[in-house]
Amino acid sequence: MYGVYVAYLLREGSSKATRQARAPLALRDLLLVGLSAVGVYFGADWTVSSLQGLAAGLGVPNALVAVTLLALGTTLPELVVSLAAARQGKASMAVGNILGSCVFNALVVLGIGAVYGTVQAPPELTGFALPFVVGASLLFYLLVQDRRISSWEGMLFLVMYVLFVLEVSGLA
User: pTM score, two decimals?
Assistant: First the structure.
């Protein structure tokens, strides 16, 4: 599915690329990407180990910590990039960054995990979190039909996230 998605994006972007000159790829850029990948690997390993310890210390299931703290931590870079793009008036880059990250996480990360072993969704996730995310995604799709996200729509999603975290953590 991710391959189909990327092929679609490349086909759509190729017509725009003919209008824009592409900068050549520098060796420095490739080296930076490689070093970043190594950093992400070790950072992810440390993060997962730390979150498992945190979950054990708090006496909560790993899935609940992953759906709250891990999700927040891995999303902060996208948030920073999207805020910077929005402030510069590059809304399409902000939305593309968020949607691209969501699509990549849903298709590639889950797919690679399933290739190396069975991915099982625990009851804590399938009972509330998964239906909530599906519903929020559907609401997002319906709200952006006008190709805009207004302030009140953004606030609606922030409130929904707070309620989600409160419910998943057992505080609601």
Answer: 0.59
